[in-house]
């Protein structure tokens, strides 16, 4: 049981370390997930996936579970470009 608790702490520590590296990599830029982007753009999750597939929005994936994240500054650029096309 003690070993299981220690292993759990080790996993948490590794995840926190990865999160710290992501934050450093992002230079303090706010990270948004798929749900944040869908709400912000007022589109479905599938549309967010299409934007990714077409290369319209840049995204970053975590190593452990493949979750997608987006830099808020890059989403702002996307919104500006999209607004100019309309």
TrEMBL record:
Q: Which intervals hold domain Helix-turn-helix?
A: 36-82
- Tell me the InterPro entries matching this sequence: DNA-bd_dom_put_sf, HTH_17, WH-like_DNA-bd_sf
Q: Can you name this protein?
A: Helix-turn-helix domain-containing protein
């Amino acid at each position: 049981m003690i070993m299981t608790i220690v292993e759990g702490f080790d996993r948490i520590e590794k995840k926190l370390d990865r999160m710290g590296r992501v934050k450093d990599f992002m230079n303090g830029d706010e990270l948004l997930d798929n749900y944040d982007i869908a709400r912000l753009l007022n589109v479905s999750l599938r549309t967010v996936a299409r934007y990714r597939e077409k290369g319209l929005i840049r995204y970053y994936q975590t190593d452990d579970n493949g979750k997608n994240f987006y830099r808020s500054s890059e989403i702002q650029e996307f919104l500006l470009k999209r607004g100019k096309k309309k």
